[in-house]
Design a protein that fits this description.
It is built from 21 helices and 26 strands. It is an alpha/beta fold. The protein is 31% helix and 20% strand. Helix 8 packs parallel to helix 10 and helix 18 packs parallel to helix 19. It has an 8-stranded mixed β-sheet with strand order 5-6-12-11-7-10-9-8, with helices on both faces. The chain has an 8-stranded mixed β-sheet with strand order 16-17-24-23-19-22-21-20, with helices on both faces. One adenosine-5'-diphosphate binds next to helix 14.
């Protein structure tokens, strides 16, 4: 079976020389394969006459075409197709009562599409994309005799109701206004808000206006709003963004409680959290934006191990060149690199907030993972290093250029990604270095000609990281780079950041709450603690072992090691290992679990 996909948002026939048409071999000898549609103004490809030579894919200056050969049998499993030469989804996951079902796969592989179908929002068209009306009878007939039949029948007739927590919570304050409490009370017909106050930590901000809430607060309002709905099936798309690790686990526990009685499906890219949260996981693979296949369900431990390994044995499918490995021993802490900044004890007092930073130093070429709750003064600390804020007491010797990627990204820029880079970093945007060291590994190259306003959250994040790394500076402060990136993109981003810091002898301060990401990106750890919004204490940087131990002791979480892959796994609170590790003070490294444990 041949699949030809044209990314409509990239294809721009007015701005190219129609290379896809002029270089197509059958087209040159008179067989019509590819043309510009009168209707859409974009390229269209005939999957019947295309010979899959791949020339158009390589020639298109906007990287807008994919041609893929798939096994013929897969045709039977086509559940949904958005249009001619558009994305296709094969197979569906099966929600189950009593356990949290996870979906794990790259961005653009069809997770939202699958959720849309399972929630009854989209009727699957089984590939008949020209039909305007849903044909549920045909769909139910197609699923006859499968586990999904009853479920879809109930969803399609409204006997099962769905509630969805959307991915982009930072937009909620543009849609709603008024007190958060009022919004939640309106939804709370079952009187369950009280039971969520404590586990979601809602009390401190419920009386504030939604317009003033931070990302982490909006995330918890969105989770509460979803849980309070009177529904049978609950979907949570990335419940962890903007939350610190402690809050992530609190949310995980609340969602697990819900799953005891209801159907619950989650999409989550923080693998440590997914591991803790879900029981069964469906891996998804395919070609991003072109097609996605739902693999067989696996127990969460196996699913994540397979995902990190990059190879699915049962499906005989490799989806990454190399496996991703974790070190169970900390790297050696005896750094010889030159010191960039030394600071003695610093304090900064604002009207409602006071920060104390213990003495420390930052080295050239060092990537410092910065962990700790939001609003404990991480940004304030870096602003003092940059000379943008003067410490109330204490001194920073010298002044350093800082390049900053903020936590919340705006896509208000009018123009293409290339123009954005040109404006911000000038000639450097056209250098080979920027191209191969930054754009290529972050996979931003295919986006250069697109308007910034059309980028998805994950695309915008990669552009913002590229921009930050492309600026000339001594210190790079990158705030929550993992948000909206899929697990693979997180690892690529971590590697890219490290490489640039090492190669250019720069210093990176990376604020993030994804423990796997912090593990991969950091040489050392700086820990912030305190009472968010009131007081903050910054300490470090410490060597990895000490930093991880200090941080995890503060949040009361321990990790064991998976025997097959070495990856860190969160211990259940008060389990034997949890208690043992807490008593020896070893929160993160060097405890392996038995090979057959799950
Ligand atoms: P994920 O949630 O895994 O990131 P999605 O299900 O959102 O993936 O999208 C998969 C692909 O389907 C994307 O390439 C997206 O552009 C495409 N797509 C989503 N919705 C539509 C639509 N209404 N029309 C055409 N293409 C769509
Ligand atoms: P983090 O980076 O850890 O999220 P920040 O350093 O941004 O924390 O902020 C810490 C606290 O200081 C917050 O409560 C914030 O509202 C407050 N704050 C930051 N800058 C100012 C300022 N210029 N004036 C008054 N308060 C501020």
């Amino acid at each position: 079976m041949r699949v030809a996909v044209v990314f409509k948002d990239r294809c721009q026939p007015k701005r190219c020389h129609l290379e896809c048409i002029s270089f197509c071999p059958p087209q040159r000898t008179g067989t019509e394969v590819i043309w510009i549609s009168q209707e859409t103004g974009k390229a269209e490809i005939s999957e019947e006459t295309c010979i899959a030579c791949g020339i158009c894919v390589r020639k298109c200056p906007f990287d807008a075409i994919r041609i893929i050969g798939l096994p013929e049998e897969l045709k039977e499993d086509l559940v949904h197709q958005y249009g001619k030469n558009a994305f296709r989804l094969f197979r569906l996951p099966v929600p189950k009562k009593g356990s949290v079902i996870g979906l794990l796969g790259p961005n653009g592989i069809g997770k939202t599409t699958a959720v849309g179908i399972l929630s009854g929002e989209t009727a699957p068209n089984l590939g008949h994309y020209r039909r305007k009306k849903p044909h549920w009878e045909e769909v139910l007939d197609y699923f006859k005799g499968t586990e999904l039949h009853d479920y879809l029948e109930k969803i399609s007739t409204g006997r099962l109701k769905a509630a969805i927590k959307p991915q982009y919570v930072d937009r909620l304050n543009k849609v709603y206004s008024g007190q958060a409490r009022g919004l939640l009370q309106k939804i709370d017909t079952g009187g369950r808000l009280d039971s969520l106050m404590e586990p979601l930590g809602l009390a401190s901000f419920l009386d504030r206006d939604i317009a003033q809430l931070s990302g982490g607060e909006l995330q918890r309002v969105a989770i509460a709003a979803t849980m309070l709905k009177d529904a049978d099936v609950y979907f949570f798309d990335e419940p962890s963004s903007y939350l610190d690790i402690y809050q992530r686990l609190q949310v995980a526990k609340v969602i697990q409680g819900l799953a005891k009685e209801k159907y619950v499906v989650v999409v989550e890219h923080d693998l440590a959290v997914l591991d803790f949260l879900a029981e069964t996981v469906y891996l998804m693979y395919g070609s991003e934006g072109a097609y996605g296949i739902i693999a067989e369900p696996r127990p969460v431990r196996t699913a994540i191990n397979v995902y990190l390994g990059g190879y699915m044995k049962e499906e005989n499918m490799r989806f990454r060149d190399r496996e991703i490995r974790f070190e169970s021993r900390p790297p050696r802490g005896d750094w010889k690199a030159e010191t960039l900044v030394t600071f003695d004890e610093l304090t900064k007092r604002y009207e409602n907030f006071e920060l104390t930073v213990r003495p420390g130093k930052l080295r050239k070429g060092e990537v410092v993972g910065v962990v700790g709750p939001n609003a404990t003064g991480k940004t304030t600390f870096v602003k003092m290093l940059a000379g943008e804020e003067t410490p109330t007491t204490g001194t920073v010797q010298g002044k350093w250029q800082v390049s900053y990627k903020p936590q919340y990204l705006e896509s208000a820029y009018e123009g293409t990604v290339r123009e954005l880079f040109m404006n911000a970093i000038g000639k450097k945007a056209e250098s080979g270095y920027f191209d191969t060291e930054i754009l290529e590994p972050l996979k931003v190259k295919g986006m250069l000609e697109r308007d910034v306003s059309t980028l998805s959250g994950g695309e915008l994040q990669r552009v913002a990281i590229a921009l930050c790394l492309g600026r000339d500076a001594d210190i790079y402060l990158i705030d929550e780079p993992s948000a909206y990136l899929d697990s693979n993109q997180r690892m690529e981003a971590a590697k890219t950041i490290r490489r640039i810091m090492e190669r250019e002898a720069r210093t990176g301060l990376i604020v993030d709450h994804d423990v796997y990401f912090i593990d991969m990106v950091s040489d050392s750890i700086m820990v912030f603690s305190g009472d968010p919004g009131r007081t903050g204490v910054g300490e470090g940087p410490f060597p990895m072992r000490e930093g991880m131990n200090r941080f995890l002791r503060m949040v009361g979480i321990t990790f064991r090691r998976d025997a097959d892959t070495n990856r860190p796994r969160i211990n259940k609170l008060d389990s034997r290992l949890d208690r043992e590790q807490k008593s020896t003070g070893e929160y993160y490294y060097a405890i392996e679990e038995a090979a057959n444990a799950s």
